[in-house]
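DATA CLASS: polypeptide
GOAL: derive structure tokens

***
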Amino acid sequence: MPVTVRDAAACTDVGRLRQSNEDALVLSDPVFAVADGMGGARAGEVASAMAVAALHGLDGGPDELVRALEDVNARIHQAARDDASLAGMGTTLTAAVIHGDEVAVAHVGDSRAYLWRDGRLRQVTDDHSLVAELIRRGALTPAEAERHPQRSVITRALGAEAGVEVDLVRLAPQAGDVLLLCSDGLTGMVGDDEIARILGAGEPLERAAQLLVQAANGAGGEDNVTAVLVRFGERDADDTEPERAAPLIVPAGALALAGGQAPAPAAAVRREGRRTVALLAAGLAALGIAVAVAVAIGLQWAHFVGATPDGRIAVYQGLPVEIAGDLTLYRPVVVSAIPAAALDAAERDALLDHRIRSRSGAEGRVTALAESSPWLAIPPMAP
């Protein structure tokens, strides 16, 4: 019987020793991913942010997923060559896309994908690391690898070279299966037996993700740690396609966590905007005719920056007001390819303030953002 995603959750944390979180994640059915950035200064955060932004809106099959990784690899590599402050940056990426009755997992680096089925945990990706290769060649035992002084050296990463080889694993999920995507901050601190115990405890996925992160931190928390969990269930023949939640695409710079909870940047922006809209709409109901005329004239001039329903930065003409239902006082006139979730919290607060401007002023703010963040490789804005 066909399966579908029944539940998904994620948790991420900076760990006990690091000053910043260079992990990033995607929780956006049908795409789920974990990236672990690396590089000097904040370059690792840039690389992982680029990687997760490249998955925004992906809705194709395995081939499209692999092409997305190959494309962002080239862009990360070029960005590091063009900007000395980003030299040496790269990122792991383990990403899964649900396509029909298949789950395709694309993988570069030492983040991992596991499948929990019928009480057993199975690693479905191979680490691209020095010790993993030594284990596969029989030169090291798994126990020796845990103590090896170069256990953190990876042999493949997005951005390290102009081209990259992407591993692709195809899975046929069954009802009750749980897919775990995680950074090595989890697997470097917590053994498979403990991961299996936590997943087998029957906790809700949100709680299970928290427990995995807590276990890593409890064992020392030597690295950033991220866990993404996806549970599959049966879909009846007469079921309609499940409604997909707003995408959660979290770059490292946006990981301002409270209690290990990953924020939902794009969704949070839209919810906050609608609260503001409701207040403005109530105020408009009390306006007199003269003010209404002034508003009508102002609608032709007024513009503001906001986010589209699918999370892209856009310039709107009119006022950020919803009257009722689908009746609004604004319309999109320019839509960029910049996902709101690819911005950190400060950038979102500054950009999506709904402040009224001229069209040139609003477009100028979006253009300035793209020019100040060349690693996003944003295409020109389209009407």
Remarks:
- Residues 62-82 form the longest helix (21 residues).
- The chain has two domains: 3-258, 267-376.
- Residues 37 and 91 are 4 Å apart (CA to CA).
